[in-house]
Write a structure and sequence with these properties.
Blueprint (H helix, E strand, L loop, with lengths): L2 E6 L5 H11 L6 E8 L2 E7 L3 H10 L6 E7 L14 E3 L3 E9 L2 H10 L10 H11 L4 H9 L4 E9 L6 E6 L4 E4 L4 E4 L11 E4 L5 E4 L4 E4 L10 E3 L15 H7 L1 H8 L15 H6 L3 E6 L1 H17 L4 E5 H4 L10 E7 L5 H12 L4 E6 L5 H5 L2 E4 L12 H20 L5 H22 L2 H11 L4 E6 L4 H15 L2 E6 L16 E6 L5 H13 L3 E6 L11 E5 L8 H20 L17
Parallel strand pairs: 15-16, 15-17, 17-18, 18-19, 20-21, 20-22, 22-23, 23-24
Antiparallel strand pairs: 1-4, 1-10, 2-3, 2-4, 5-6, 6-7, 7-8, 8-12, 9-10, 9-11, 11-14, 12-13
Helix pairs in contact: 1-2, 3-4, 4-5, 7-13, 7-14, 9-13, 9-16, 14-18, 15-18, 16-18
The chain binds glutamine hydroxamate.
Length: 605
């Protein structure tokens, strides 16, 4: 979603700002812009196309300056048109970029109109620009501090004023902002990744912080206005891994990276130990007797899958809830619950807010399962498990999901062992299965040509049903979500036993029914559900484990999975569903890595 980059330097900074936007492009956006201080006033270029178009514009117009701010916008208030693209100006004196949503923008707009400010965009952001301008008395830092007190909602902002041409001021509340510390130059960004190549020294701002960056210094105050020290950390290894290589899309590359990502995520030790979740994990785990998992989208499905593992392996009661629901409902806090938040980026606004809500209710023990070690979620939780998926560019999550599943499985076995339900023999068996996963995944990836053949059929459909049972029901949900996200085919997933309670009414010859058929205890029940579909003329597309004795026949198409994989089977079964969605989308010619209306790192509510 939206990205912010800001810089104060002694060199022309435009290319650094544009390169920063390029690095944030994968998150999804619909317009972009850059502004620099030039001859005593802010000058800008904006585009409703790609960052490459913005780059061409700034080159053509010879935009240059030593102080600047830049933005990729994912519209929440106002269409993705040039007038709404950031940087937003106030009276040609002040320029501002904003990530987030200002909830009281309507009342602020009325108040500012009464003061004579003219609004030229439909954004909520424009009120922030005029508000700071109206409070400016020669000190931008001070006016930002006063202005943010009037904002309700979420924001990360970067702002500059013509009367202080070597200063950029930032502030954050509910949306991330980091300071990049350079040599005689300083930066702001919504994600350290944007500044790869410019600096590897970062200070992570906290909620309510206001920051001023100048050529030779960084000044930070907390929400009370008290000077704050935010540790400067060296964050290496950013910046790589955004090359496409031999693949057609990042999503395809990321699907094929899963054996490597999983290898890197499986703990090295030859036993399961709580310490992998953090220093205090053993103590924290000893004090809990249930789990509350909070997440959104694909991460929510990894939580749903994990519930089966946690209850069967660790015998620990587990609730899974969509973060955006939990944060707004009245719930009963349980001091003996471990709150687990799952998020690829660790910045997902709803999940972060749900975490804070849980903490405000008194939940003490919290754990983040996350792909970004420096993220707000990891910093905000007592414990964490880092997945090592590497940068995920495709908006539709793949390797982040399977590595989250690995993390959640490790949690289930660790808790099972601590609670006396996993003995040494079982522990070794789980570890062996985990270690064998990458090889098993490679054999699943080898099914790609058969899946491409199916995708040709799917590309002509407008609806699809996905069925799974037990541990594989969340996998069916994830398969349907992948197909919706990137091919725009309407897809729904059901636990197969629910068919007869409603969705069977939808089944005709025109309805493909994708079935996840592992060789488990529910197999015979699943076969009966498949017969219910066949009896109504529905076409079945079955991913069947070896030994299920499900064979291709009229109206039943079968791709044989290489082996039966016990409790880790969901990690294998989701991969062909990713490939099916991917190749169907390719056959329909959609923008696979940047599906319409969607964004990576959903940093707004
Ligand atoms: N509300 C602002 C910024 C949107 C945003 O943060 N998107 O991710 C706008 O609509 O311009």
């Amino acid at each position: 979603m939206c990205g912010i980059v800001g810089a104060v330097a002694q060199r022309n900074i435009v290319s650094v700002l544009v390169e920063g936007l390029r690095r944030l492009e994968y998150r999804g956006y619909d317009s972009c812009g850059v502004a620099v201080m030039s001859n005593g006033a802010p000058k800008r270029a904006r585009s409703v196309s790609r960052v490459s178009d913005l780059d061409a514009q700034v080159r053509d117009s010879h935009l240059d300056g030593v102080t600047g701010i830049a933005h990729t916008r994912w519209a929440t208030h106002g269409a993705p048109v040039t007038d709404n693209a950031h940087p937003i100006f106030s009276r040609d004196a002040l320029a501002l970029v904003h990530n987030g949503i200002i909830e009281n923008y309507e009342s602020l707009r009325e108040m500012l109109r009464d003061k004579g400010y003219e609004f030229v965009s439909q954004t909520d952001t424009e009120v922030i620009a005029h508000l700071i301008h109206s409070m400016y008395r020669g000190d931008l830092f001070q006016s930002v501090r006063e202005a943010v007190k009037q904002l309700h909602g979420a924001y990360a902002i970067a702002v500059m004023h013509k009367d202080q041409p070597h200063t950029v001021v930032g502030a954050r509340q509910g949306s991330p902002l980091v300071v990049g510390v350079g040599n005689g130059e300083n930066f702001l960004a919504s994600d350290a990744l944007a500044l790869a190549g410019s600096t590897d020294h970062f200070a992570f701002l906290e909620e309510g912080d206001v920051v001023e960056i100048t050529l030779d210094g960084v000044k930070i105050v907390d929400r009370e206005g008290v000077p704050a020290v935010r540790e400067v950390r060296v964050v290496a290894a950013y910046g790589g891994a955004v090359e496409l290589g031999p693949y057609r899309h990042f999503m395809q590359k990321e699907i094929f990276e899963q054996p490597r990502a999983i290898t890197d995520t499986i703990p090295q030790a030859d036993h399961f130990d709580a310490s992998i979740f953090g220093e205090n994990a053993k103590q924290a785990f000893d004090g809990i007797d249930n789990l509350l998992i909070l997440a959104c989208g694909t991460s929510y499905y990894s939580g749903l899958t994990a519930k089966y593992w946690l209850e069967s392996i660790a015998k620990i009661p587990t609730q899974v809830e969509i973060a955006s629901e939990y944060r707004y409902r009245e719930s009963v806090p349980d001091p003996k619950a471990l709150v687990v938040v799952i998020s690829q980026s660790g910045e997902t606004a709803d999940t972060l807010a749900a975490l804070k809500h849980a903490q405000s209710l008194g939940h003490k023990h919290t754990l983040a399962v996350c792909n970004v070690g420096t993220s707000a979620m990891v910093r905000q939780t007592e414990l964490s498990f880092l997945t090592h998926a590497g940068t995920e560019i495709g908006v539709a999550s793949t390797k982040a999901f399977t590595t989250q599943l690995v993390g959640m499985f490790v949690l289930a076995v660790t808790l099972g062992k601590m609670r006396g339900f996993v003995d040494a023999k079982q522990e070794t068996a789980y570890l062996t299965q985990l270690r064998h996963l990458p090889a098993a995944l490679n054999s699943v990836l080898a099914l790609e040509p058969q899946i491409i053949a199916w995708a040709e059929d799917f590309a002509r459909k407008e609806n699809a049903l996905f069925l799974g049972r037990g541990l594989h029901y969340p996998i069916a949900l994830e398969g349907a979500l992948k197909l919706k996200e990137i091919s725009y085919i309407h897809a729904e997933a059901y636990p197969a036993g629910e068919l007869k309670h409603g969705p069977l009414a939808l089944v005709t010859e025109a309805m493909p029914v994708v079935t996840v058929a592992p060789n488990d205890t529910l197999l015979e029940k699943l076969k009966s559900n498949m017969q219910e579909v066949r009896a109504r003329g529905g076409e079945l597309y079955v991913f069947a484990d070896a030994g299920t004795r499900i064979v291709s026949e009229n109206g039943i198409h079968v791709i044989r999975m290489p082996e039966h994989y016990g409790p880790l089977s969901p990690i294998l079964h989701v991969v062909p569903l990713q490939l099916l969605a991917y190749h169907t989308a390719c056959a329909r010619g959609t923008d696979v890595d940047k599906p319409r209306n969607l964004a990576k790192s959903v940093t707004v509510e």
